Amino acid sequence: MGLFRKTERRNPDPAETHVYYSTPFGDTDDGNQKLFFLQREGVLFMPVFLSVDSMKEFYRQSNRAAYAVLQGDVTSVSDLIRSIDVLKGAGIVIEPLSANPIEIPPTA
Q: Where is the composition biased (Basic and acidic residues) (predicted)?
C-alpha cells in the first residue's frame, strides 16, 4: 500500500472567492425601505455569502421582503459598493451569521 503525498494548498484569495449577494437597498416585510448593511464601530459592511441558503437565512432574520440573488466575486461586490456615492466608505463581510465571518475593510 502506497502513501499519499502531502500537498500544500494555498488559501484562496478572498477577492477571488465566489459569493452571492443582493442589492444594498430593499423592502422590509412591513413595507418600509432600508439599507441592508451591517455596522461595526461606525463602518458599514455589505453582507455577502458563500451559499444561497446562508443568504436566505440572513435576509429572513433581517425581515427583507424580497431580493435578487446575484453572483460574483468579492472584487465585483467591492466595485458595486464604490459605484454608489453614499456607500464608498463601506467594507464587505463574508458570511456574517457564521462563527467566523471574514471582514474586508473599506480600504482593502
A: 1-16
Total residue count of the chain as it appears in this document? 108
pLDDT, tens digit, 9 for 90 and up, residues 16-67 = 779 999 999 999 999 999 999 999 889 999 999 999 999 999 999 999 999 9
CB 54 within 8 A of CB 95: yes
Written in H, E and C, the secondary structure of the chain is CCCCCCCCCCCCCHHHCEEEECCCEEEECCCCEEECCEEECCEEEEEEECCHHHHHHHHHHCCECCCCCEEEEHHHHHHHHHCCHHHCCCEEEECCCCCCCEEECCCC
Q: Are 70 and 43 in contact (CB under 8 A)?
A: no
